[in-house]
Amino acid sequence: MNNNQYVVGIVGATGAVGQELVRLMHERNFPISRLRLFASARSAGKVVEFQGRKLVIEEAKPGVFADVDVAFFAAGGSVTRALAADAVKAGCLVIDKSSALRQDPKVPLVIPEINPEQLRHHGGIIANPNCSTAVMLMGLWPLHQLFGVKRIFVSTYQSVSGTGAEAVRELDDQIHALVEGKPVPRKVYPYQIAFNCIPQVDTFGPDGYTGEESKMAQESRKIMGLPNLKVSATCVRVPVVRAHSVAVSAEFERPVNLEQARAAIAAFPGAVLVDDPAQSKYPTPLDFAEKVKCGVGRLRIDTALDNGLAFWVSGDNLWKGAALNAVQNAELMAREGLLRPKAAAAAV
Ligand SMILES: NC(=O)c1ccc[n+]([C@@H]2O[C@H](COP(=O)([O-])OP(=O)(O)OC[C@H]3O[C@@H](n4cnc5c(N)ncnc54)[C@H](OP(=O)(O)O)[C@@H]3O)[C@@H](O)[C@H]2O)c1
């Protein structure tokens, strides 16, 4: 990394993803000259600790990005739509976590282990994938490079933190209410999530698939550069606090080989191979919460598909599925000289 230091903004700093962004900025030593934290007017004035200093949350509104070099947006699609253009106009790079611009052909959608070259072709905004897509691709991409993927059937097991901070509180409140024999509070999900599974993540489209299921198809195609990839996904919310899991059955162009598949996963920078059936060794969400890499295991020949492999991935939706991928994109851009502080540019 060069010696540049950046004025960093985090929009949505009080949320589930925003809090992880603040934490990762610190833990990964992102070169910050000043950190500015933004949220809604409701949170303006609240105080957050960062590296022993107290930072005051500011209201995110037009005009606040004048001195910001890079702004991470983690406040939902409507905030991105309302404020990202203003940030870009102020010369700020926007690294967006929302789904608002992921399918915009002018906006690259980047996982640095898969399509880092796309970071060179942007108009001020870099999009980051949906959490279940990012986790799944940590298993699928290295297998695709070996065998050439044609179509996938996917089922997800998604944690409540994927919905945001309020859903984490809802699971906690419901478990306490059930244990104490009290009425079960319910606000975020259409059904009780404690001790249950809900086969709905996002709203339903006219084709019967939910928004999350459609995102898994569209985003996988864009990131892997495979516009004709066939994807059928069923996304399910489960009473897990953190880390999503995905069961994948994939059909490939070429004959598959289990040993080569395992070696490719083990060599891939975004994954850890945890695959020893005789010892009941495979990834679980508890083991892969707060981990940089995603766990891949349960690799086997898929008996229902030609050239098919079945596998399981667990990975942290708040990290690889959100905050970490965004920070990794910014780190790579800084390393490659694609991110320059405004102060340095002005001095030239
Ligand atoms: N959770 C995940 O695993 C995950 C994964 C991938 C992508 N994402 C995406 O990341 C974004 C944030 O998700 P989250 O799970 O962190 O949600 P969250 O916990 O509900 O947090 C939402 C954040 O947005 C802020 N916000 C809401 N309205 C705002 C406004 N009008 N102006 C400025 N800030 C506003 C909130 O501030 P207040 O506290 O002031 O309300 C809060 O900081 C979403 O776009 C989501 O789709 C999330």
CATH topology of the largest domain: Dihydrodipicolinate Reductase, domain 2
CATH hierarchy class name of the largest domain: Alpha Beta
Strand order within the widest beta sheet: 5-2-1-6-7-8
What can be said about the biggest beta sheet? 6 strands, parallel
Task: Give the proportion of residues in helices.
Answer: 25-40%
Named CATH architecture of the largest domain: 2-Layer Sandwich
How large, in whole angstroms, is the Cα Rg? 20 Å
Distance N terminus to C terminus? 20 Å
Question: What fraction strand?
Answer: 15-25%
Helices, by number, come to 9
- Along the chain, the helix and strand elements come as EHEEEEEHEEHEHHEEHEHEEHH
- Count of distinct strands: 14
Low-confidence segments = none
Q: Topology of this structure?
A:
Blueprint: E1 6-11, H1 16-27, E2 32-39, E3 47-50, E4 53-56, E5 58-59, E6 70-73, H2 77-89, E7 93-96, E8 125-127, H3 131-147, E9 149-158, H4 165-179, H5 211-224, E10 230-237, E11 244-252, H6 258-267, E12 271-273, H7 285-288, E13 294-301, E14 308-315, H8 319-335, H9 342-347
Parallel strand pairs: 1-2, 1-6, 2-5, 6-7, 7-8, 9-10, 12-13
Antiparallel strand pairs: 3-4, 9-11, 11-14, 13-14
This protein binds NADP nicotinamide-adenine-dinucleotide phosphate (NAP).
NADP nicotinamide-adenine-dinucleotide phosphate is lined by residues 12-18, 39-40, 42-43, 60, 74-77, 79, 97-98, 130-131, 161-162, 164-166, 317-318, 321-322.
Brief sketch in words of this structure:
With 348 residues, this protein is of the alpha/beta class. 31% of the residues lie in helices and 23% in strands. Helix 3 packs across helix 6 and helix 3 crosses helix 8 (319-335).
